[in-house]
Amino acid sequence: MFSTCSLWDSTNRLYYPPMVVQVKSRIRHSSKTMEGNQQKVEANVLLLGAENVGKSALTVRFLTRRFIGEYGDIESIYSHTDKIDGRDICFNIWDSLCPQCIRQAKQKLASTAQIIIVGNKRDLQHRRTVSSEEGRLLALSADCGFFEVSAAETYHGVLMVFHELFELIREARALKKGTAGFKGIVRSMSAVFGRKRTE
Ligand SMILES: Nc1nc2c(ncn2[C@@H]2O[C@H](COP(=O)(O)OP(=O)(O)OP(=O)(O)O)[C@@H](O)[C@H]2O)c(=O)[nH]1
Predict the structure, then answer these.
(1) I want to staple 48 with a disulfide (CB 3.0 to 4.6 A). Which of 2, 31, 44, 185 is the partner?
(2) Angle at which helices 155-177 and 181-193 cross, to 10°
(3) DSSP structural state of residue 38
């Protein structure tokens, strides 16, 4: 997840920070599972964002469905298997401590990674200092996906972020191979002409 410096105030009191979930687009197909010939797919997810934006909260929500409140500040790597369309997807999630600029990251990673900007702490509307429009515009200008969620309030929104990320990876791979299909083409067009992804 990245947070973008331009949307943070100087005192770091932003309660509605935009973040980006970034995933390497390359999905590694490991060897066939013992049970049959279904391939296990791995997605590598890097969470970037400034301090306190809720990177760990989002990770823990996705992994355990729970919001536990306090998370400490250790950099950690987690593995979590989720079923998407009947297929086991292994998310390797790196909950990092490093903030990074979205546009810089986009320039460096665009060809190899899918990026989603996530505005967390949606429940704190009264303390909000960044509007939905600002987040959406940022996502549009950086050609990234965009979600607004509350790790504190719902599991579903967080789940949607990770699933969407996987969809983006899958589509990027299909486009590369020329097998995107109708859904992939529509989504690619909406990426170009604007998209709106909120919880
Ligand atoms: N109200 C509310 N609080 C949240 C939400 N997500 C996280 N928090 C709180 O925000 C604080 C920071 O959350 P963390 O998940 O530790 O944030 P982080 O980005 O991992 O922080 P660092 O490890 O310092 O970089 C904690 O007190 C969380 O309980 C949310 O959606 N709503």
Answers:
(1) 2
(2) 110
(3) P
Please give the structure tokens belonging to residue 156.
């579903």
Ligand 1 pocket, 150 CB below 6 A?
A: yes
Which atom from ligand 1 is nearest to the alpha carbon of 149?
Answer: 31
CA atoms of 88 and 22, how far apart (whole Å): 20
Does residue 34 have a pLDDT over 50?
no
Helix H or strand E encompassing 161? helix 155-177
Is the pLDDT score of 58 beyond 60? Answer: yes
Going from the C-alpha of 7 to that of each of 20, 95, 101, 131, the distances in angstroms are 13, 21, 10, 10
Q: Which domains does the chain carry? A: 5-193 (3.40.50.300)
Task: Give the global pTM.
Answer: 0.76
Please give the Cα distance from 142 to 102 (Å, whole number).
7
51 CB within 6 A, ligand 1: yes
Report the 10 Å Cβ neighbour count for 52.
17
Strand, coil or helix: 56: helix
Nearest to 95 by CA among 60, 143, 133: 60
